[in-house]
Amino acid sequence: MKSDIYSYVFRGRLAEEALDKAGCQKYHPEAIYFSEEVANKLSLHEIDEKYVQRSKSMITVFAAITAFENATRDYVYKVLVDAYKTDWWSKGIQGSIKSKAESRKEKEAKIRWHVNCGDEMMSYLDFGDLAKTMTSSDNWNLFEPDVVSQEWVKNLFEDVETSRNVIMHSGILDDYDISRVGMNIRDWLRQINA
């Protein structure tokens, strides 16, 4: 048994050395999400290092929350389009949410020098509006087969949105909050992808 473990570890070290010699780079999670090229464009080197390091600790959390938000946005959009076809916006989005999104798009269109949120109106909905859209009385029958409980959807999105807002407003989450975000994302994906 002891020699099996030694052999396994030794073969791993040999493989690692061979990859190093071949010029393969080791996996570094920060390298995936942190780009020196982008950092230079943003003049990150001009900012006090203590602020940069604190922010770097949230890069992966930001990526996870953003990916979750965009994946959920696509999910809601697909369900609405399947049900309402080209009328998905008029039939699937509630009046107050629709007005807020349309106003945001109009305001953004006036700032021609900056890239916009996207071409689809779905891009202009707030994160919390996704849960409201799913649980609205007009749409619930469309989402119920996937998510079962309106309260579960509302609570999950409130939890993630609380952490999302901390990150989006330059805050730092602790390990407990990061774990909760991960649990919520995992639970959501297992539920709707089952």
Helix content: over 70%
Low-confidence stretches: none
Biggest sheet statistics: none
Give the ordered list of helices and strands: HHHHHHHHHHH
Q: What would you report as the Rg, rounded to the nearest angstrom?
A: 22 Å
Class by alpha and beta content = mainly alpha
Shape: globular
Mean pLDDT across all amino acids: 87
- What is the tally of beta strands? 0
Separation of termini?
39 Å
The proportion of residues in beta strands is: under 5%
Q: Helical stretch count?
A: 11
Write the layout of secondary structure elements.
Blueprint: H1 2-21, H2 29-33, H3 36-41, H4 49-56, H5 59-84, H6 88-92, H7 95-109, H8 127-135, H9 140-147, H10 150-168, H11 175-192
Condensed summary:
The protein has 194 residues and is mostly helical. It is 72% helix and 0% strand.
What does this structure look like?
- The protein is mainly α.
- The protein contains eleven helices and no strands.
- It has helices at residues 2-21, 29-33, 36-41, 49-56, 59-84, 88-92, 95-109, 127-135, 140-147, 150-168, 175-192.
- The longest helix is centred in the middle third of the chain and has 26 residues, at 59-84.
